Amino acid sequence: LKMARSSLGGMTTRLTLRAGLRTPKKHLYRTLCTAEFTMAGRTKVAAAQMTSTVDLNANFQTCSRLVQEAASAGVKLLSLPESFSFLGSSSEESLSIADTLDGPIMQRYCSLARESGIWLSLGGFQEKGQDDKHLFNTHVLVDDLGHIQSFYRKIH
């Protein structure tokens, strides 16, 4: 049993995991997961849309404006679209601009979340891969303190 409290609207999460349940015929083991969420009041979430370009600074300014508008409206979690930080005109250009999760591009968005006091769901960050020929389309969740809480490297 795991209990966690998040600053996202005072949400309490209870997660129960049971492992080792066997299906009778196939003798396969499964894990069952049950989640229970309780919210203190209502939490306002929003989705933002924008048209990204190859210009990192212009895109950041647009995102910053959208985040500030959302924060002023009482939003606690804002979802930004895929390729929010930039949209390269070619694979080569995207590879040359892509950055790591602890690099300066993501640090700007972490600071933005902290300064505005809201969580950011960053739809598709173009993350630099292990070499100069690959990048990941990574979804990143940043909390209101500016820390990366979760990320998922999309596989499709």
From TrEMBL:
Coiled coil (UniProt feature): none
Pfam families xref list: CN_hydrolase
InterPro entries reported in the protein's UniProt record: C-N_Hydrolase, C-N_Hydrolase_sf
Entries under Gene3D superfamilies matching the protein: Carbon-nitrogen hydrolase
Domain CN hydrolase residue range list: 43-156
Example GO molecular function: hydrolase activity, acting on carbon-nitrogen (but not peptide) bonds
Name of this chain's protein: CN hydrolase domain-containing protein
Organism for this UniProt entry: Taxus chinensis
